[in-house]
Amino acid sequence: MQSMTRRPLARRSAALALVALAAIAALPGIALPGAAVAQSPAAQAPINTYNAIHHPVVGRNGMVASQNFLATEIGVDILRRGGNAIDAGVAVGLALAVTLPRAGNVGGGGFILLHLAEEDRTVVVDFRETAPAAAHADMFFEADGEVDNDEYRFSHKSSAIPASVAGFDHLLRNYGTMSWREVAQPAIDLARDGMVVWEDLAVNLARSKPRLSANPASRAKFYKPDGSNYEVGDLYRQPDLAWTLEQVAEGGADAFYRGEIARRIATDMARHNGLITMDDLANYRVVEREPVRGTFRGYDIAAMSAPSSGGMHIVQMLNIFENFPLKEMGYGSADAMHVMAESMKLAYADRSKYLGDPDHLDLPVAALTSKGYAAELARGISLSSARPSSDIGPGNLAPYESPETTHYSILDSEGNALVNTYTLMFSYGSGVVIEGTGILMNNNLGNFTLRPDIPDAFGLMGSADNQIAAGRRPVSSMTPIIVLRDGRPFLLTGSPGGSRIITTNLQLLVNVLEHGMNIADATARPRMHHQWYPERLEVESGFSPDVIRTLRARGHDVQFSAGMGSLQTVMFSDGLFYGYADPRRPGAMALGY
To answer: Is 405 an active-site residue?
Structure first.
């Protein structure tokens, strides 16, 4: 990869002057495509020409894009101090636990996709939560057979074993260059000393007050001692979370899974009918896996493997798209949207049957991602009419055999790439904070299938292979992605959004790789989503009314939706780093140096 050799620390001070320009360019509607032309001829790369409406941020040594500006700044500072993308990834993940409490976390888990430049290797780090030893398939059913939805989603009992700290520890020990203390200190400082409340945080906490006030420790963490809300401009401190992060900075994963933090988690769980024990915490393990791989229009795709469903089905849908002239159809045309909607139905139907924890069953990855299988599915798509979901079921794979979340993307000067999607599941997870720790817990047992005829918390159908069982990892839609060109990271992306994560990421790839958009225009364009059941095609505002009428005439039940996802995207091209933070979520920022 050209122009990606590490620069000595003393020479990096020259990059500081670019930080203010990059921060301004990250603001919606503001771009500075010519601000640094004199620095390098590569700055004239066509990706930032004026024929685009939106423009990515430009950097020369690295790029960070995350859903919160403070976390992004921390990541860039780690890179500037000599850390690699892995060090910066851990620092950003810990910072988001402080600055984006509804999704950033140390009480959840997720998936990281890494490209390691020196080893020329791409690897999955699976730190998905697992079901406690006492968990079982019937645990949320009442005596009359009905599901106790409050217990299933908003209780101590709804939490799987938290895995984020284990995942970050695995990264630092195996691939990082900095210590726990170095990467944790910025988050500790923010939690201990406080941060000034901004509009989005104030509004979000106020809206979530009924649920977060049900738990005394949550109420104490998120609201003032007199019970009133934090207002814009207030200083918000999280001393208990600062204590937890301090313990981790000193003792790493052992402090969290075997020390005083673990004791406090297990004690609080036992007091409130939760299942997680000291043994559960001590026995948790991170797993490294091979990514799902595919190709599209000459690019190599590396995406998250099971227990995520996203990688397999993104590759599957890209394979289907190769059978249609989407570029000639045009972005946002009725034909292109129709083909994409029909492909989404087929992929989500397969998702309902063929996904689960790969440590507990064999998954037909090769068949699902086969070009031949995709061609067969493509032949069943009519361009004139929508196929009812009731006529679609999981495909026959025999001839081809041989799941509130946040995301960030980081690329460093050496060519190391890190994309992390991690989650508490719902916004603020279970709403439960462990007393004395500031840890907001996940409710990821809700990503399991209660029964094959009952949709999960995001309305997705599943199979018996995803029912609750001790030690099992629930199926997820989280889908960090790395696109490689000539074996080098070219495009990094990912998004929150529950069941819409897969289709959000898919459309970013199509917009860039098929329609030739820059990553900013590709992110800002309106999105669509279909997940087989329920039978509706959801669209954001911004598509042509004529196109909507045409889709309805073809049989699509088109429904308008709120904004979908929050893509955090980084690219390396023409010797420059590019980044763009999705404007759908306030406070997101991409920043290079």
So the answer is: yes
